[in-house]
Structures are given as C-alpha cells and as structure tokens.
Amino acid sequence: MNKAELVTNIAEKSGLTKKDAESALNAFMEAVQEALSKEEKVQLVGFGTFEVRHRKAREGRNPRNPEEVIQIPASKAPVFRAGKSLKEAVNK
C-alpha cells in the first residue's frame, strides 16, 4: 500500500474527504518526525511505539575491497516496535 492508497483507505473508513484525510496523515507523520527529532518516544497503545535508537561507531569492511577496513560513524535510527494488538492482528 502506498501513500495515495492509504489516504483513500483513511477517507473511506473515516468519512473524510481525500484532501482532509491527506492533511490528517501528513500532520501525523510530521508530529511523529518532530517528536523523534527531539528523541521523544511516540507510543500508540495497542498499535506500537516509534522511538530513536543510538548506534555506536564501529568498524566495517569496504564491499568493493574486503581487505579495506572503514570506520562507520555513530548514528541515530528511527525504530518502530509493534504493539500487542497489531502483532495479534497480523498473526491471525
């Protein structure tokens, strides 16, 4: 499902127009992005949790030249953990 299909699905299920559904989806994505950039957790009970994980700096191998060792810098990564209800719905 892509964004346009998701907007259509939200509009059908909520009774909103497609334009309003797209605005709501964009607002949700923006709110999650802002919270994660502040390293805050976004928890939707039953659905899941969006959070930021820190990755340590480490050594890696150059894929084109496996003998060459390269330094991979520390970074942050957004992560989603599914909630119990979502896991149960997917595993039905």
UniProtKB/TrEMBL annotation:
Gene Ontology molecular function: any one: DNA binding
Pfam families the UniProt entry points to: Bac_DNA_binding (PF00216)
Keyword vocabulary terms for this entry: DNA condensation, DNA-binding
InterPro entries, per the entry: Hist_DNA-bd, Histone-like_DNA-bd_CS, IHF-like_DNA-bd_dom_sf
SUPFAM superfamilies (alphabetical): IHF-like DNA-binding proteins
Entry GO terms, CC: cytosol; DnaA-HU complex; HU-DNA complex
Domain of life: Bacteria
UniProt record, GO biological process: chromosome condensation; DNA replication initiation; gene expression
Keyword DNA-binding: yes
Family per similarity comment: Belongs to the bacterial histone-like protein family.
Name the record gives this protein: DNA-binding protein HU-beta
